Amino acid sequence: MREKFARWDSLFALYLKRDWKKIIVWILGVGLFSAGFVSAFEEIAKGQGLAGMYETLKNPAMIAMVGPTPVETAADYTLGAMYAHEMLLFCGLFAMIMSVLHVVSHTRKEEDLGLTELVRSFQIGRQANSLASMIETIVINALLALFIGGVMMSFGADTISAEGSLLFGASIGFAGIVGAGIALVMAQIMPSSSSATGSALGIVGLLYIVRAGTDVSNVDLSIINPLSWTYLTYPFTENNWIPLIFALIFSVIAVIVAFSLEGARDMGAGYLPEREGRGNAKKSLLSVRGLFTKINKGVMIGWLVAFVIMGVAYGSIYGDMQTFLESNEMMKQMFSQSGVSIEESFTGTIMMVMIVLVSILPIVIVNKLFTEESRLHLSQIYATKVTRGQLYWTSIGLAVFSGLAGILLAASSLGGTAISVMGDSATMDIVDFLTAGYNFLPSVLFFTGLAALALGWVPKLGKLVYFYLGYSFALNYFGGILDLPEWFSKTAIQSWIPQMPMDNFDAPIFITMTVISIALMVIGYLGYSRRDMVEGA
Amino acid sequence: MVEKVINLKGLKKKFGKFQALNDVTFSVNAGEVIGFIGPNGAGKSTTIRTLLGIIRRDDGHAEIFGKDVWKDSIEIHKRISYVPGDVSLWGSLTGGEIIDLFIKLHGGGDKQKRDYLIKRFELDPKKKAKGYSKGNRQKVGLIAALSVDSDLYIFDEPTSGLDPLMEAVFQEEVEKIKEAGKAILLSSHILSEVERLADKVVIIRQGEIVETGTLDELRHLTRTTVTLATEGNVAEISEVNGVYDFEQSDNQATFSADNQYLNDILLAATNLGVKKFEAVPPTLEDLFMRHYEG
Fold first, then answer.
1. Smallest Cβ distance to A533: which of B45, B55, B141?
2. Which parts pass through the membrane (chain A) (predicted)?
3. Cβ contact (<8 Å) for B93 and A285?
4. Could you give the CA distance from residue A28 to residue A22 in angstroms, rounded to a whole number?
5. What Å distances lie between residue A318 and A310, A312, A421, A432, CA to CA?
6. Cβ–Cβ contact A194 with B under 8 A
């Protein structure tokens, strides 16, 4: 037994030395994200804020996203209760993902890279590396837990007790340790480090979805879900430490299982065979469009799913819109306007916000062509009969298509959810939502055009388009509060478009912006067809 | 009159302030294999990228099949195959998928040839490209390029990362296309490979072509290494014109000799009574070093 883990301690010391910068960023990053928003939440809690938030988060769609609360009346919904309710699940998820990535990268990835081979040639036990990595991850999560607890206490808020703060931190720390355990097991089973990371993150994702189901239908069932052991501790309200005991037992078992699996396998091998890929390409891949669709598929699906979730999340607010918006002075300023119903004015604003986010995807796809170029992926393709025009316009086409699909999904999921939660009192139908969404199409096209322009002439500046998007977003989102001069808010492209349904459709603006966007794409093409390909050189 | 497949005259290209190509002039005829050699950064890849229309020349004349390499690039590409020096692939696709894709985008190739080449190069086509080593990635590029029927093949350091066995397979396959009368531009710094395959050598240095010709012609320009043992005092040879780097041990000497003075050297040696005479023609490596050190 000794033999197996010989000198793990020197590896452990080495890791701390090697990783100390990463560890600091990790603890500060996750820690401040988890504990640092107390003042912001105090702001939200002012006036009727707590009650409003309580009503909003009570509906099933929100529970599916952020989890349940043990509080049964709005009156008992304290600042601490709200903080734990809204933050704990996500922070736990965060800690888990960080630990998964860290453990796999120190164990299986090093094996794949051949580093383990080198290390084992010294007087170091066969399983010392796994033990050292695991202990390092546990230490990091323990420090993280203490840090979070300390920061939360330091705010000195009434309902954020010392015990609750420590429990809040410990729940996040344990989530990290559970994630590390899952990762260590998968690192033994899977045939390569990337499949180990993928499957471990897949399990975490699955746990999240399963708990969304059980939280909504029957919270008692959630207790068997390792991910639920975070928020089920209910810090600041019930302060229940028992789920953490489950987490401890789970982690110990996972580590034991992982070590016995590792002891019985060869270095570099897993228990599952490497999945064989295709020896021949499918017909659908064999074209520029097929190729670009394939290489953008992951990011496209990811974003489109995000748009749906976003639509559902915002849509679920419609049921208690009145309470939600009246509860908070800031919200009221952002979303209300005289003369129109509160639902309509909220739709106008939120639709613009969502379409700004939808614009990210086309920019990503257009910029991807330059990434491919500088990674030399296309070198051999340049020497075929594929024209530069085909490469360019296929990318632009895919970008525009994803913009159209993004608007459809965002607007219809917002509308669908809104209509279902409003029930009989619904004043808008799905067409209103879709029109409001597609009304912003020119702004999506405009960002696509800007990215295309950069791609054609100065591809290195493609990333700047995100900055302009972020700027427009900030201006639009907070513009209502800040009371900016007209010319200044017009520097954000969306400000030119009227917000439907509270304003009327403006055809000349719609057409002009569309034409300008198409012109940008054409000008971009002129550059792309003339310039040197970068090819890393 | 032989058809000129590649015709370059006074090619110039600047990247910012850096003059990458200063005056590149050479031509490739149908059925010829040209070895394009030079150290890293001399402008080999830049020349090739210009030929492929990936980058645009600043000045000069560049034609393939009598067509302008920039304006008519697509017409030209229908008849050429290219393998870059650093084949970079999509990690999520398998080697087989990528080969099929390249062949298809080229306009179709020989399915049987593809399968045959995969076997010859011992590539596992079902593996995702992210798991491939440098050599295996190179194989993917080579198989795709060799599976299509072209009139001109451009290889930019094609065997980097391949093991000697696979290098030999590559050389055999190139000999086959050579026999079929296709033109090949082979950029390489593996000189033995160029020596074996090339009819003509083009040497580039700092963006300029410094030497062009058949290996024999080039050898003529340089010195032969001679080992000589004589009955008389061999040291006398060191006085003869055209003898350099003279080194003597007992009555045996090794020196390099200018080819034009070989006759004088032989006459002098005969006077001393020749016991042993060995003359080794310069290798490409010697030629190469001469250009880069001198």
1. B55
2. 23-41, 87-107, 128-153, 165-187, 194-211, 241-261, 299-317, 350-370, 391-416, 436-458, 465-488, 508-528
3. yes
4. 10
5. 13, 10, 7, 15
6. yes
- Which residue is closest to B14 within chain A, CA to CA? A532
Measured CA to CA in angstroms, residue B168 lies from A381, B32, B114, B172, B174 at distances of 26, 20, 18, 6, 10
CA atoms within 13 A on the CB side of B262: 15
Distance between A461 CA and the closest CA of chain B, angstroms: 18
In this complex, is the C-beta atom of A402 within 8 Å of any C-beta atom belonging to chain B? no
Rounded-to-integer distance, Cα A46 and Cα A52, Å: 10
**What letter represents residue A457's amino acid?**
W
Residues of chain B contacting A194 with CB distance shorter than 8 Å: 130
Helices (H) and strands (E) in chain A, counts: 25, 0
Termini Cα distance of chain B:
37
| Residue A432 Cα to chain centre, angstroms | 29
Measure in Å the smallest separation between the Cα of B68 and chain A Cα atoms.
14
C-alpha–C-alpha distance, residues A93 and A473, integer Å = 27
| Length of chain B (residues) | 294
d(CA B115, CA A175): 50
Closest partner residue to A384 (CB to CB) among B45, B83, B105 is B105
Domains detected in chain B:
4-218 (3.40.50.300), 222-293 (3.30.70.250)
As a whole number, mean pLDDT of residues B75-80 equals 94
Q: Report yes or no: B187 at the A interface, CB cutoff 8 Å.
A: no
Q: Which residue positions in chain A have pLDDT lower than 70?
A: 1-2, 322-339, 479-482, 535-537
What is the ipTM for the molecules in this complex? Answer: 0.84
Burial class (CB in 10 A: 0-12, 13-18, 19+), A486: exposed
Predicted structure pTM score: 0.78
**pLDDT tens digits, residue range A126-155?**
888 899 999 999 999 999 999 999 999 998
Residue A113, chain B, CB below 8 Å: the answer is no
Mean pLDDT computed over every residue of chain B: 89
